[in-house]
Amino acid sequence: MLLVSLPQRQHEGTSPVCLYQDREEGDVDQGALLTGGVFRFAQKTYSLPLRGVWQSNSWPEDVRRWFYGFDWLKDLRTFGTNGARLLARSMVASWADRPPADPVARESSVMGRRLANWLGHYEFCLSTATEGTQQLVLDAAVKEARRLSAMLPLPPMGWEGLAVLRGLLAVYMAVPYYDGFFKRFEQQLPLELKRLLGDEGIVAERSPEAQYRCVQELTAIQGMFTTLQWMPPDCVPVMLGRACAVLRAFCHGDGGLALFNGSQERGAKAVQALLEQAERYKVVASSLSRGGFARLTAGRALLLVDAAAPPPQGMDGMAHAGTLSFEFSHDRQRLFVNCGAAEGGPWRRALRSSAAHTILVVDGESSSDFGNDGHVTRRPSQVRCEQKRQGRVQELHLSHNGYYPSYGVLWSRSLFLEPSGEELRGSETVEGERDVSFMLRFHIHPDVRVEREDDDILLHAPSELWRFRQTGGVIMLEDDLYMGRGVPEQTAQIVVQSCPGRPLTPAEEEATEAGGRAAKASRRQQKVDWVLEHVPL
Fold first, then answer.
1. Which residues pair with 427 in a beta bridge?
2. pLDDT, tens digit, for every residue of 317-373?
3. No. of helices (H) and no. of strands (E), the chain
4. CB 179 within 8 A of CB 136
5. Under a CB-based contact definition with an 8 Å cutoff, are residues 332 and 404 in contact?
6. Within a 13 Å sphere around the CA of 302, how many CA atoms are in the beta-carbon half?
7. pLDDT tens track for 275-318
8. How far is CA 499 from the centre of its chain?
9. For a Cys staple, 315 with which of 44, 257, 280, 311, CB 3.0–4.6 Å?
10. DSSP states of 277-335 as a string?
11. CB-hemisphere CA count at 13 Å for 68?
């Protein structure tokens, strides 16, 4: 296939031959901060060193990993002042002239994002630079692309694997005489898509945010082929269509993302803009079960449940200890939510814990643990999810053994959604050789006002009223923080404290999965039943 927009490849120039322009909307406030010599990451402000920014900074590793990827170029471009342009040019050129020796800078995911951002924002920050500066940057890009190409095939790294390949394609577009970059891209892309999205288009990271990022990367890759006036590989439009259908299924009625495994709402505007750019069809995936999620709809209600253990090593960088957590919305109003996610720092660690999810937490511990590198070190080994109907009522029956090694108990959760969508019931059961202390946490969206009325909790949503009640525990109303929209917001959570249980009868023990293993010790059961129901106004 001929590439009619490219010149003959006998000689190199000082400007890119072909460019794909990244038009993703940036953060104007972050752009303004950067031009003032500071930036914000994970709710903390950092200063740009006056000299030798790439050699003299002492930022934490997660900050360096983000900053070295140059994602903030879009913030400067969106801010749009001449000062922002000159700052962007200076930062890119200074890196090209003297990159840091920091090993984080040479991680494949960081390199791929850096190359894609340099060339995706080239018109903004470098197209009017001197020939010497442009040549310096292109030479540095080729050098990094060679190093990146030698790293292929990649280890599992989730959506960032696509970012690596996009960076390689961007360099090829700029300097097409290095056609080895395209050959490596063309060879690895189908393999990466198969590993990351399977056949159904559900991202292996089991995260709405990662799903959004995959759609973003595939949309960019498809746009790059359009700029080249080439047809993309068949796998690109096929997998993009499937990934978009899944992304729509991960959205609540307000159009924003559900908050599982490192996700924030992002908002309907951003999600819709991406989907409109990605493909013209408006298909919603009928099931998310292959991705480890349950999705039930009834009336105007949506129930989303994390019904699997955290993803495997390499795909678990965004994972949370949220197995069996759920979110529930009605029409455009979120009611029960998880608490969201942060990019790094203490907030990220706190929001990954089980307690930051609408879930049962035993003795304050999480059902999964994380190591210093951010990957999962312990997860439930058995997770069960059964979906069925009784009449018109949709049922989910779930369980996991994440607390069995430490506490000797199994947790089962059953959820029942009425056909009107105006009543959600739950039954929480903890069984083991002894009673344990646990709390059921129901995090409430900050747009909902909450008040206690005797033993009931009233949820005042705009134009709607809901009532929550329970039996089997002690109900409390506590302060809470929500990070689903990027900043901490005050809200509330319903907490149900466990009470002592009862011994199981021999017939009940025989019926349980663990009954045979526990024949020498009597088993006990603690149970809480609850209901959330719509109250007509």
1. 414, 529
2. 999 999 999 999 999 999 999 999 998 888 999 999 999 999 999 999 999 999 988
3. 16, 21
4. no
5. no
6. 23
7. 999 987 889 998 999 999 999 999 999 999 999 999 999 999 99
8. 35
9. 311
10. HH-S-----S--GGGTEEEEEETTEEEEEE-SPPPPTTS-TT--S-TT-EEEEETTEEE
11. 25
Of the candidates 297, 420, 436, the residue with the CA atom closest to the CA atom of residue 428: 436
Which tokens sit at 232?
């993309």
CA 21 – CA 265 distance, rounded (Å): 26
354: Cα within 13 Å, side-chain hemisphere: 24
Phi, psi at 72, each rounded to 5°: -75, -5
Average pLDDT rounded to a whole number, residues 383-390: 95
Place of tokens 């050129």: 93
**Token output for 339:** 């608490």
With 0-12 / 13-18 / 19 or more C-beta atoms within 10 angstroms meaning exposed / middle / buried, residue 327 is buried
Which pairs from 140-143 meet CB under 8 Å and 24+ separation? 140/95, 140/96, 140/97, 140/99, 141/96, 141/115, 141/171, 141/174, 141/175, 142/171, 142/175, 142/178
Instruction: With both helix axes pointing from N to C terminus, report the angle between 160-174 and 180-197 in degrees, rounded to the nearest 10.
Output: 160
pLDDT at position 57: 75
Please report, as a single letter, which amino acid is at residue 319: A
pLDDT at residue 512, as a whole number:
64
